[in-house]
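This section describes the prediction task in plain terms. A model, or a person checking by hand, is given the sequence of a single protein chain and must write out its three-dimensional structure as a string of tokens. No templates, partner chains or ligands are provided. The sample shown here is typical of the held-out split.
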Amino acid sequence: MPRVPTLQASAAAAAAAAARSWPMLRRLWRKAVVAPVFWLYHLGEDIIFYGFLAAMMAANLGGIVPEILGRWACGEGSAVSAAGEEVLACSKFIIVRFLPAFVVQLFVRILARARFEAREAKKEKEKRENNEKTSSTAIRVESSKEQRPESRGARRWGPKGFMPYAIYLAPPLIQLSCLGIKMKAHHEEGSLEWRVGYVLDDFARFTSAILISFVGVPSMLLTTMIPKVKDDDTSSQ
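The expected answer:
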């Protein structure tokens, strides 16, 4: 007669089957739950970061610039100026709500870019040292350069793609705008001083909008972008 399996043997067989299926269940869990959660998380990060930059572009190019040009070209209360004010209001609504998370994202992405550049600089230094070991001429050239620091050129401040001259222009433009606002506030509307303040305020706001749109936003994009670099060390070997 065939032997009836005992309860202990059945339990052991079930445990062995569960142990064999556990890695597959873990892979299914990662693909079905963990991977979509991480994808949604990174998607939210990108929406906040790029959405804030898009709102900045819209506020400046679609809001401030048309509002100022509309007032100067078509007069106060024109349709162009009113449309610019509406775009500016909608853009400010997004900017104010995205600002805290955007600041965190900007800081994290700048740190990631700095770590990337540090790794690339270390690889380049090791590669240059390996090349110098095989060439005495290269060693002599490098030593002559070290004796002349001016031949290395100016030291770069900030990651690649960062354009610091926009920051240098920010304080004068802010002071110019504040001066224009004070002149409009302390003088009668229509007077010469009021008109000068009106022009100074508009000039400062218009220039700031152009700088933010064509210098500030691209600079933030280039600063936080991590390029894909091919590893040439393995191919050279």
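For orientation: The CA atoms of residues 106 and 151 lie 34 Å apart.
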